[in-house]
Amino acid sequence: MLSDIxxxxxxxxxxxLGAASVTLHVYSKNVDAxxxxxxxxxxxxxxxxxxxxxxxxxxxxxxxxxxxxxLSMRIQMSPKEMxxxxxxxxxxxxxxxxxxxxxxxxxx
Length: 108
Hints:
Layout: H1 14-17, E1 23-27, H2 31-40, E2 44-51, E3 56-62, E4 68-74, H3 79-94
Parallel strand pairs: 1-4
Antiparallel strand pairs: 2-3, 3-4
């Protein structure tokens, strides 16, 4: 459950803490439309929405209240494409980078 932060609450505002302690994940039948709606409502992109090597279209956001969200949907991808994306991701991990994260998409 999410609620507004109010005086005397035992829960802290993620913005006050400097980060969220959890990521809420939502599967959608149309992740692109949901993503667009979230960004238009003020969400900051942490990881661009993209087709991932595990067969999902996936991305990460932070809402205006500091809560972390990941959004995804299953996609059809050929085994060849999955393997290509997996190899690209492994090369990035070897360089201590993360697929989908770059300086232009990081939330402040």
